[in-house]
Amino acid sequence: MRLSATLSLYIGRQFVLWFLAILGGMLAIVYLLDTVELLRRAANKPDATFQIVLTMGLLKLPEIGQEIVPFVVLFGGMYTFWRLTRTQELVVARASGISVWQFMAPVLTATLLIGMTMVGVLNPVFSAMLGRYEQLENRYLRGLKSSLDVAESGIWLRQVGEPQAYLIHADAIVPGTLELRQVMVLLNESDGQVSGRFDATSATLRDGFWELRDAWFNRPGRVGEFLPAYRLPTELTEQKIQEAFASPDTLSFWELPGFIATLEATGLSSVRHRLHWHSLLAQPVLFCAMILLAAAFAMRQVRRGGALTLIALGIAAALLLFVMQDIVLALGMSGTIPVLLAAWAPAGVSVMLGAAALLHLEDG
Known about the structure:
Elements: H1 5-41, H2 50-86, H3 89-95, H4 100-142, E1 146-151, E2 154-159, E3 165-173, E4 179-188, E5 194-206, E6 209-218, E7 225-233, H5 238-244, H6 256-266, H7 271-298, H8 301-304, H9 307-334, H10 339-361
Antiparallel strand pairs: 1-2, 2-3, 3-4, 4-5, 5-6, 6-7
Helix pairs in contact: 1-2, 1-4, 2-4, 2-7, 2-9, 4-7, 7-9, 7-10, 9-10
């Protein structure tokens, strides 16, 4: 028997409403807790006002929100199926010849649409918000004074403040090191005027200075000077550069492929960016896996009893899957397993487990 359009819309609407309600409640709790933590961090930062902290909490909310959405999908699906079973609506539908797969089709469709909307439409907005949050965090809470930019024209590094302000451009970086090739350094005065320029074949970050090799030093109104080696003082360290480097979360889904190509062209590792991009691609599949698990643990509580026990088992199974996902992603980040396997394995395994559980519980 075919599932009518009216019943499909009814089931899909029930899931979407409960999904939004649970999501709103969890985001409110997350915002409250995160704002309290930000207030604690800003306690000894006079420039971080209460308004700035509230703004930072809002800007960071989408980042945490994307992490809890799979749980929201699971809880929304479990409550929707449990409620429909409790009110006998699912029992009547099953008695009329509708299979569990037909009954789940509207929820799976809504879940796919939610996943694709989050990845393709909302992710660029969330990435921009997170990028703004990191700027405020670096400025008001962490006091970072350096940044690293990677563009098609090469690598850009900037230092402001003491001992000297300057801008570094390099065509490429030697993979696995902090040795820059074909380097240009613009020295800046306090008023922003350029006071000098270095053009070197390479620059290597040492303890407290950049070591320039085969450099020409040019200053306004003076003859250029050739320097076989020159030490340019810096406060930059490898850790500071890595902290200032743009994280994958601050780049939108549509920007990531081009940024990955740029990283690889300049010699920087693109593993975590490729892993993040494929993880975004796998998100809709992971959401559907949560619906399969929700159905397996919540739709048969009337006939078997123990609703709370089944729901608790479903939550425990989801937590176990997410722990395994973190482990697999860590292995992918370290290069132990391929990026594609690390990004897609959690979603694929979750779908297979959910489908197997449904086939077992529903007798095919």
